[in-house]
What we know:
Layout: E1 3-6, H1 12-15, E2 20-22, E3 26-30, E4 38-42, E5 48-54, E6 60-66, H2 75-88, H3 90-93, E7 100-105, E8 114-119, E9 122-127, H4 130-134, H5 136-147, E10 151-154, H6 160-163, E11 171-175, E12 182-186, E13 189-193, H7 208-215, E14 222-226, H8 232-239, E15 244-249, H9 252-264, E16 272-276, H10 279-289, E17 293-298, H11 310-326, E18 328-338, H12 345-359, E19 363-370, E20 388-394
Helix pairs in contact: 2-5, 7-8, 10-11, 11-12
Amino acid sequence: MIDVILKKGKEKAAYQHHPWIFSGALDRLKGSPENGEVVKVYAADKEFLAYGYYNAQSRVAVRLIEWDENKTIDKNWYQEKLQAAIAARQHVLKDKNTNTCRLVFSEADFLPGLIVDQYADFLSLQILSAGIENSKNDIIDILRTELQPKGIFDKSDANARTHENLEITQGLLWGETPPEFIEVKENNIRYHINIADGQKSGFYCDQRDNRRILAEYTQGKHVLDCFCYSGGFTLNSLALGAEHVTSVDSSALAIETLKHNIELNGFKETQQTSIQSDVNKQLRAFKEEGKKFDVVVLDPPKYAPSRSALDRAARAYKDLNRLGMLLLEKGGLLATYSCSGAVDIETFKQIIAWAALDAGREVQIIKQFTQPEDHPIRISFPEGEYLKGLLVRVL
Length: 395
């Protein structure tokens, strides 16, 4: 195994079990490791720090995975990590009202670059690091043995693979090819989801708790669900008695899937309206029409993929939330979210304050949202806290 020695003073993060070593922290290598190869990382004084995946193509030169020098990084090591991750999620699935969740969450489960989502009897994988790519066959074999799914599907089409010098891939890895629509349950609500053509790994299970919590505020209300995708907030609101939900998304597949899900759950067509449109344009159209809602949900895609995009993202979030506030009745509720890891909760609150000022409205924060327990946040890796949200009353 090849040794990687850090520059003097660059070992602090590794001591604190942060999993990223940036290329600028490296002093020298004793050998020429392949991308994705496991290496031993040492401080400048030759003290062992951790094992990690090396990648010369990535700004994160080493992704640390194990701090015990006596461990061997082999198939048994992967089995131990995967078994622990799967066992920790059984609480989410135990009541049978939910059969979809995130089983493995990358760095949070000591497997940087591996995302595993369960959708009923199928698994969807995203492999986003060269180290995981090198161990793919072992990981598939372990998942097949532990979970006995009908099929395992590769959704490794994220841009993160290009940063690791990996080709974007998608397709069947093992077992049966998933049907066009798989039926899953979340919060006892049924969904048809499309793994192959859907966004990310197929479904956004990170909003499970937030959908249920927000729905409690929607009974008898007129709700606007923006960036609705397959209808998570829409369906939860209807299930808890919303008077009517208007759902907006720019994706034709999302709107088609939502219509399937409305029918699947037995809701009346008159309870819901689907609009395929750019959300910002549609919000402006609603404003011109003088349309008002009791509850507005804003769950946009990631506006800030990195800190360098933060200023531009802040402007986009501000304008979006300003428009949302202008569509609310006095005393109405705005549920607003950001999935950008570069935007922390305090920054997000400041953006909402700016939006309120521009909209000429006062707001009261009445609830704060975060990601659910199957998306845990390692205390040594705060970057894993990416989802945040606020429920605000707009006066």
